[in-house]
Amino acid sequence: MDLFTGIATVLEPYNLLMLTIGIVIGLIFGTIPGLSGITAVALLVPFSYVLGPEVAIIMMIGVYVATSTAGGIAGSLFNMPGDVMGAATARDGYPMTGKGEAGRSISMQIFASSIGGMIGVVILVLIAPQFLRIALQFGSPEFFALAILGLACVAALSEGSLVKALLSAVIGLLIATVGFDAVSGAARFTFGSQSLQGGIDFIPAIIGFFAVSEILNILFTRGTMEKYDSDEIKKIPRVALPSLKDIKYVRFSILRSSLIGNFVGMLPGAGSTIAAFLAYGVERQTAKNPEDFGKGEIKGVAAPEAANNSAAAGSMLPLITLGIPGGAVTAIMLGVFILNGLRPGPLLFERTPEIATSIYGAFFVAAVLVLVIGLLSVRMLLRLLTVPFAFFSTMVLLFAVVGTFSLYNRPLDLWVMLGCGVLGFLAKRYDFSIAALILGLVLGDIAEVGLVNGIGITRGDWTEFFTRPFTLGTLIAALVLMVLPFLIAKLLPKKNTCGDPEDGSNPTSAQSSAVGR
């Protein structure tokens, strides 16, 4: 079975070491507000040349799984989530801490995340072959339609203004057009510079948009960030294990939330944040005691944690079977594949099946290691909150500069990184979608090549785009996603979607990390 083969590959000493290092990095970046998993994964991209695509992806999966787990730790203990999806966990995790049940909350959070990840990867292994059978029938028109659907999803499902999300996607598409045309070879937007003829390199752009912009944004708002001293950290148990009674109580909530999270994760652009809040909402609506949610209900901790890690596994499905990233992290992974001469999709399973199976194994082993390492290192991780943020920001910027320049030794790449960092910072300040922008950058080439080659296949007959069943269905789905938010806004009265004010579950520190995953 592919899963067991992948587990055996990941358990090889070198691969296991890189996965463990990735998990430690992910736990650190996930615990500290502002240092999101996307930032950590982006900083690892330059090292993919040295590590190779298989080991680099294994390490990135370790970061991805660990940050999905660690994001809610600081939220549950101090109401300061490391990322937005951690805000869902903080709704009940923080009240549990107030009642002296911090160990119970944290142990259940890590346990549910681990189980959710395992369930998610099992579903991924079972469903991926079915997707592959469909993907083998795809041609250029179908890949064009999928790229449009991916852009529509990430725009429609983004928080905030749909218009701003669409503009962000358009900006990403414009950046993707710089350099030689992939089909005709004509130079575009190079302004006479030979350095721009190869286009805007993906690595400096991704590091700028995620790492540099995040640091600039946190430094800009650092006056609102809380600080904690060692005495508060010492109150947290060194090791806390979930009780069998609690596991039995939440077992169906974990299963249900894992299924919800995995399905949401498969949708391009949906991401773990939507999965976490959706799972929390479903548990609250179906519970016998909905009034207890927001006051320290342990199901309110287990549900979003199981959903977000299951969604992380689900987000790999469109990437490895169709070559379409499901969110920002998988967009970075797509860049790693492309940089190493690989193309995710049906051919990945035919030409390099060992990488596909390694992805399965890495998710499963990472879920197990996160359970062990997470339960043993909670207090150590929380001590990071007492370190001045200036130290972490300096280290991140140092890695960003060194990693960017070491690729090609070109000063242009540093300017691209800085320019994208400033652009990303402005996008965050004015509520534009970084996820939509980066998906536009990544999917721009896929959409353009699919469109031009599709027109060539149909000999210039545009109507064939609307007579091929899958292409037509995908384009209609993209249109529905674009129109749906407007219809919902018109038909439903406006509600406060930021959480109940009395539970304090939507802190501004979490909003600073609001990037689609």
Topology:
Blueprint: H1 2-10, H2 13-31, H3 37-44, H4 48-51, H5 53-70, H6 73-78, H7 85-98, H8 102-135, H9 140-156, H10 162-176, E1 179-180, E2 187-188, H11 202-220, H12 230-234, H13 244-266, H14 271-286, H15 299-314, H16 316-322, H17 328-339, H18 346-351, H19 353-376, H20 378-382, H21 389-408, H22 411-429, H23 434-457, H24 469-491, H25 508-511
Helix pairs in contact: 1-19, 2-5, 2-19, 3-5, 3-11, 3-17, 5-8, 5-15, 5-17, 5-19, 7-8, 7-14, 7-15, 8-13, 8-15, 8-16, 8-19, 9-10, 9-23, 9-24, 10-23, 11-21, 11-22, 11-23, 13-14, 13-15, 14-15, 17-23, 21-22
Count of discrete structural domains? 1
Rg over CA atoms, rounded to whole Å, is 22 Å
Strand order of the largest sheet: 1-2
Number of strands: 2
Q: Can you tell me the overall shape?
A: globular
- Provide the succession of SSEs: HHHHHHHHHHEEHHHHHHHHHHHHHHH
Give the helix tally. 25
Low-confidence stretches: 495-517
Roughly how many Å apart are the termini?
A: 29 Å
Q: Report the structural category.
A: mainly alpha
Beta fraction: under 5%
User: Main beta sheet: strand number and arrangement?
Assistant: 2 strands, antiparallel
Q: Which percent bin holds the helix content?
A: over 70%
Query: What is the average of the pLDDT values?
Result: 80
Report on the structure:
With 517 residues, this protein is mostly helical. It has one domain. Helix content is 71%, strand content 1%. It is built from 25 helices and two strands. A two-stranded antiparallel sheet has the order 1-2. β1 and β2 form a beta hairpin. α7 runs antiparallel to α8, α8 runs antiparallel to α19 and α17 crosses α23. The C terminus is likely disordered.
